[in-house]
Fold these 2 entries.
Entry 1:
Amino acid sequence: MTTTIGIGQLARRSGVPIDTVRHYERIGLLKPAARLASGYRRYGEAEQKRLRFIRRGKALGFTLDEIQALLSLGSSRDVARVRGAASERLADVERRIAELTRVRDGLRALIAACPGHGRAEDCPILNALSQESEP
Amino acid sequence: MTTTIGIGQLARRSGVPIDTVRHYERIGLLKPAARLASGYRRYGEAEQKRLRFIRRGKALGFTLDEIQALLSLGSSRDVARVRGAASERLADVERRIAELTRVRDGLRALIAACPGHGRAEDCPILNALSQESEP
DNA sequence: CTTGACTCTGGACTTAAGTCCAGAGTTTAG
DNA sequence: CTAAACTCTGGACTTAAGTCCAGAGTCAAG
């Protein structure tokens, strides 16, 4: 049988605060945990993975709803739907990368053009801030 | 003299809801607007630009606090500080792009490997969801 | 057994960023 | 002038994602 751990250890191992683990259970992002006779929650490998998955997703800017959607794919029987959902996610990510790349290029150009000293009127960054072009 | 417009027109032109414009004023992201004798707010070119800047920033995932920081650079006298702040922003953006690029590549690989039909056990997307590697 | 660490619950509180509202006054097109 | 459209204020409400708390019970080391 697999070892199970308490909520404190789960929290430490997965990098998610205890309160947040309970919160995720409350909102249904995690299944109700198994309990000891005392009422203490017990967790196995599966929920550790799930929690780490959630943490990674959040770090990437997905909302909990989006993460839940991703996770629920795992229980889908319909492989085509899974693939479609993954494609939508991909399109999202690509759009965000494109936007950020534009910003990055803009910032790079400004920084490169700014002498880093002298009069404010000569600073291209300040000038750009006061009149940007449309996105 | 420049034409000035009311809050409704400002909202339409800058793509920000009226209530949100007032909200921005309440929280200090916009300066208190000029007023007519009636109390109606009046806006000029400058605040239209500012609002559009804010909208763009939000679209890129910056918080209002970050946007305010960016905007306040415009009133900074210290060109070196402006340059430094812009560099920090750039580093941020680059980090986010790198993260998203990893996700994109992962998703692409999964989608490419998924046949889009057949048994769930053969779907690499579902398999990846149940056991991801660490970020 | 005792002590310190851990866990339980339900609910209140927080932050960010709005969004909505009522009731009153203002502007403008016809 | 009248009606429709616009704007004002202050405050209440919303959503997302936690975060904190009190008071009570439980577990583990010595």
Note: The first strand of chain A starts at residue 34 and ends at 35.
Entry 2:
Amino acid sequence: MALLASGKTRPVRLADIAKAAGVSHGTASNVFARPEIVREEVRERVKAAAEAMGYGGPDPKGRLLRAGKVNAIGVATAEPLSYFFDDPFARVMMASISQACDATGAGISLVSAANNEQLAWNIQSALVDGFIVFCVDGGSKLVELARERKLPFVALDLDSDDDEAVAAIGVDNIAGAGLAARHLTELGHRRFAVLALPVADSGFGPTTQEQVEKALYSGTRDRLRGYFAELSRFDIDVSRVPIYETVNDEESVWAGLDHIFAGAETPTAILAMSDRIALHALDWLRQRDIAVPGDVSIVGFDGVPEGAVSKPPLTTIVQPIAEMGRLAVKAILENDGSFSRQSLPVDLLVRASSGPSPA
Amino acid sequence: MALLASGKTRPVRLADIAKAAGVSHGTASNVFARPEIVREEVRERVKAAAEAMGYGGPDPKGRLLRAGKVNAIGVATAEPLSYFFDDPFARVMMASISQACDATGAGISLVSAANNEQLAWNIQSALVDGFIVFCVDGGSKLVELARERKLPFVALDLDSDDDEAVAAIGVDNIAGAGLAARHLTELGHRRFAVLALPVADSGFGPTTQEQVEKALYSGTRDRLRGYFAELSRFDIDVSRVPIYETVNDEESVWAGLDHIFAGAETPTAILAMSDRIALHALDWLRQRDIAVPGDVSIVGFDGVPEGAVSKPPLTTIVQPIAEMGRLAVKAILENDGSFSRQSLPVDLLVRASSGPSPA
DNA sequence: CACTTTCGTTGGATCGGTTCAAATTTTGAC
DNA sequence: GTCAAAATTTGAACCGATCCAACGAAAGTG
């Protein structure tokens, strides 16, 4: 019974068993850390004492202080913890981070919090050797917090506003978005709509280019710039392209489509700033029997695996997610100060959600 | 530049800034931990000193030792770390564990390792207040390791062999499997095949009831017992039902189906011990134009979300995964010793992968 | 038997904080 | 101006280990 949950009392320390076994604490420590250097007779005696007193081995809390290294990397986000398991992009990223960590024997600590106050505290008190910061949302706040810890850290996102001094790995959002826009214009599309990622913490709803230019989140801003720069080159009046800010979930995406398709002049092409948005959009369109790509084409952004099996499979801008994760872990573990910012290439992957304009 | 990666030298401790600010370390500590009790003038002076010396706040390593609680729970598995993000069952479980942790402000540490030696060390040195142990594979070894830490822990699995003393949360595998088997027999099926979860660490291939009875993993054994008990009640000769041991991945499942369908008397009903197995099986059957449920019916086990959107949607035994996660976290955090073992109910969820026997 | 190695053990210093009883200073009341 | 009460600050003790210089005993050498 006592085994179940060894109650509230576990005051048994290394020193206790040392005393019980009649040896110094130094020797007792050696029994666990370097058994080979202590005489067998003594070793057995100490182990027996440990066993008898229900000692669970040297407490890592103590060791840690002296050793210095935790041997774990923290992955932080401003979203709730379940984001790591719910979001397709995060999942792929985490899978590759995991692999890199496994390869080096490092552990992973998930750092997040329900509210901002908690978040700050959790970052300040995370037992890690460094941070990888997911910047999807509330990025700069997080980066600031992480930097205050004065530990090595890498932001997963290339915020063009950020100090050059913050290490970051990301993709060229402007170029990627440009690729998506060009693909659709080349297919003859002229009437566009944009389903945007969050612009600020303010919820969702229709927004404007001006709003987005002031966006808190540079990823959102850069992708829009990329879209519009390319559309402009094809003489499309971007001031008339509706932009709807979503929060990357079903509800806001559907609301966005309701709004966009309520107008007189409905788009034939949708630029979605994430695959998740695009996939939710696909569901909405299917429910209304709007053919994709017959009536409407749509291009996502990210390149998550779900896009390969959607109906229809999603044309998208693929980020080298796995590579990003690998580099991030490497940057933390081999923190030699040489690392700063790295921009990885993106690719247009044409699948079946985009086709010639119906007009 | 020095900001990027503050080099190898960070010998600035609380004591250093205390000296610099001309206060005792006790006061310096208070500035960070309970700012309100120190006079404003002093507080500012200490903060200024900290800023000037590049102090990143009290190191949690130090605090930890005194505080005792880490405020994080460890989730352990014998699989590689990426299992948490790749496996559908694990993902749902982790999502619910995350939610429970978020609600209480606890963090999550993922504990795993590439090899067994590493695993033992990682468990011994994990900085956590307790463990949730995924017992899918190598369960008993893990449970043993976790128990040696003498920390509260819960096994996610009701191994009937385990000591009554190990706290565990699981489902009644026998009853669940029975539900699956009865559903199919009631639809008129008489020719069955079983795609099993791992029986031992030995890889995959055809196996027998006798082998499974000796299985290392009780989940596998109990599910088979459940299937066969029910089939026997319908006068089906279970000794002729082929059993193929998979490792829960595409390759082994496909090999299993190759093997099973190579025989003269092909089954009309497949009992899959996990949804993941069932979903891979669905792919195999589709590729061979074997109609589901026209030619072959299949029932999975777990109730993962992917089963709802497969082609066709999967009939399965649903486990209350979210509830299990919640209870596990609760058991760790409110470790009052009252908890021991808990068996949760499973349900048959009939979707479109099962139908009347073709005969 | 004295003298150097080798082996195993000891105990103090240290890691970086938090805590709390006691000491000190400030404030308020008369 | 005096004294008690309130507000701050101090410094020692402690959290649980690891590390290492020094030491004692046993073994080896001449």
Note: The first strand of chain B starts at residue 72 and ends at 76.
